[in-house]
Amino acid sequence: MMQSQSIVYKIPEQNEFLSGRFKTHKTLFNRDVLNGVLSIFDEVANIGDDGIRSLTKKYDDVVLDGLILSSEYVESSISSLSPSFRFAIEQAIKNVQDANIAMLPKSWEKQIRPGTVIGENISPLDSVGIWIPARKGPLISTSIMLVVAAKVAGVKKIVVGMPPLNDGFGDQGTVAAAKLAGADQFVIGNGVSIIAGFAQGTESIPEVDGIFGPGPGGIAAAMSVAMTYGKKSVLGIGPTECVIFADETADPLKIAYDLINEGEHGPDSSSILVTTSITLAKKVEALLLKCIDEVEGKRRQYLQNVFGPNGKGAIIVASDVDKACDFINWFAPEHLMVVCEKDIENHVLKLINNAGEILIGEYTPFSAANYGIGITAVLPTNHFARAFSGITSKDMVKYSTIGKLSKEALQEIYPIIKEMGTYEQLPCHVKAADIRLFD
Question: Which one of the listed residues 241, 264, 334, 357 is annotated catalytic?
Answer without folding.
Answer: 334
